[in-house]
Amino acid sequence: MPLFEAVRLALAQIRVQKLKSFFTLLGVTIGVMFLIAVVSIVQGMSNYVTNAVAGKFLGVNTATLRSFPNFQTGNVTEAMWRMWMRRPPITIADAYAVRDALPPGAGWAIDDMRWVNAESKYTNGGPQLLAHAATPQLFTIKNLKVTEGRIYNEEEEQLGLPVAVIGVETQQYYFPNVDPIGRDIKIGGLPFRVIGVLDKQGTVFGQPLDRVVYAPFHSAMQRFTGARVNLAGVLVQAPSPAAMDDIQETVTEVMRQRHKLHPSQENDFVVETSASALSAWDKIRGYLVAAGIFLPAIGLVVGGIVIMTIMLVAVAERTREIGIRKSLGARRRDVMAQFLAEATTLSIVGAAIGIGLGFGLSQILSSAFNLPSGVAPWSIVVALALGGGVGIVSGIYPASRASRLDPIVALRSE
Amino acid sequence: MTADVRDIPLSTTGELQAVVGNVGAVPGQDWVIVTRGITRDYDMGGEVVRALRGVDLAVRRNEYVAIMGPSGSGKSTLMNLVGCLDTPTSGENWLNGSLGSDMKDDALARVRNREIGFVFQTFNLLPRATALHNVELPLVYAGVGSAERKKRAVEALERVQLKDRMDHRPNELSGGQRQRVAIARALVKQPAILLADEPTGNLDSATSEEIMRVFEELAAAGQTVIMVTHESEIAAHARRVVVLRDGRISSDERREHFVKRLEK
After folding, report:
1. How many domains, chain B?
2. CB–CB contact A328 B106 (8 Å)
């Protein structure tokens, strides 16, 4: 019997027994649904982490010198935390020593930060802002652009003028209904004149990147960020991805010398890169993918067992039909093909529904929990292949039972 | 002994013995069915039931034969063997030149598909398929393309005057109509023999007559028909009546003799 004929027969069978077919393919549907949902959420998070964390949080080709890591997988133990706290701070002198050791073409910036209270004449108050005392190179390294006004220049940096570049949320909270350019925002009682508003950055891991205020590092802002105690970050940018290792090496060497570390001693600082942050993510993704494959696998196994059971029932119910077909000249392989095609069609239909529902579910989850989701084309192919595979595997036994029925006995059955 | 089977004008018990007993295997030619000494034993839970105890039967092309006998006489077993649904425990059965007793499953299925059209007591139509699709089935297994299939199935339904009902399912048809659909299905591949098992068993007498008329027309048109029945009135429609008793042929005669004997 041609394949097309067998599939047509299978679809007719599904149409006739809608409810039974629905329950039959439920297991496969659920399995595939979760597979697709998990894969698209993981894929979405992966895209998000790569773009947002690597790009916005840390900057491209950028390494950050800090006294302890900002990105960490696993639990930070009390002991680790105490050890980090005992580390020598990153000082302003360290920052300049690093700058002087960098090769030509490399970027450099100090970016010290702390959450601070702010006030303005145009509002009764607002949320805390993440205040940055940063050299203007930071805007280049992080590719920050203004939508209004301008960023501060090197001269304003050197003079330590009280000027500020603010984020869009800062504008919304502290300058509602007024143009912030040329107006003052007060940090710690000191006024900073707003000269620019940055374009929208959104949020990363729930951190609002637009609730910020930037001022020159040499301005009074460094008093509020605590730059004299411990710099939150010294950023270096390699001219190319290939130069990343070299530049990390350079920074590490400078700092080890300055901290007078013996070769046997470990670093008492970190040079974080987007790669090191992403390696943390890769671990998380590994767990998620493992879970995302294990759970649907259970669904698929259950689905396969259900299909096998239902097919065995179908063979028993349709013994007479099998007898009729055999009396009309159906060979074993024809009967086998018919039932295999039926199991496989059922299963693939289940998988197809599961794909649809899975994307729906990932959309719902992503909007409900504010998680990103992304469509991975390979997951559709894998889901369909899995569906077909489950159908074939679970159909083989019932189909071979059907094909071996004695036509005389089968014809006599009720 | 070198008698040519084609020289024998009409098959009667005596002639058959000459053919089957003395002539070697008679495959093909005019002889559609030849069985030689076939037996069939069933193992019923340790007890062996001997359903057939050596049957010699030969049927020529264009014959219309009834196989009669009380229940348990082995007529259904004989029909299963003749119809290549089963193979004998011993002996040979030839169907249109093929040795059915030597065949395996798939070869038997091929022979059934090519050479035999079955008509059953319970019609055995697929309940969820239309009359047309039921008639198309044997062609599906023969690998005939769908356009050709439909054309031939419609022709077959036309022969049994059911073309206008071809889109109906079996439960929308009367018993007689269902049996006519089954006949159309049996004829659609122009089989060597039409094999009917109690074709009127589930029909009232008026409808039985109607089906018998269809069989007579087919026989008149040259179709070989073998009909298994336990009703002598039905058997009397055939031109030759073979009576089985206890797994053996007890009589094999022309209708006229059978009817005469019946009247006594």
Report:
1. 1
2. no
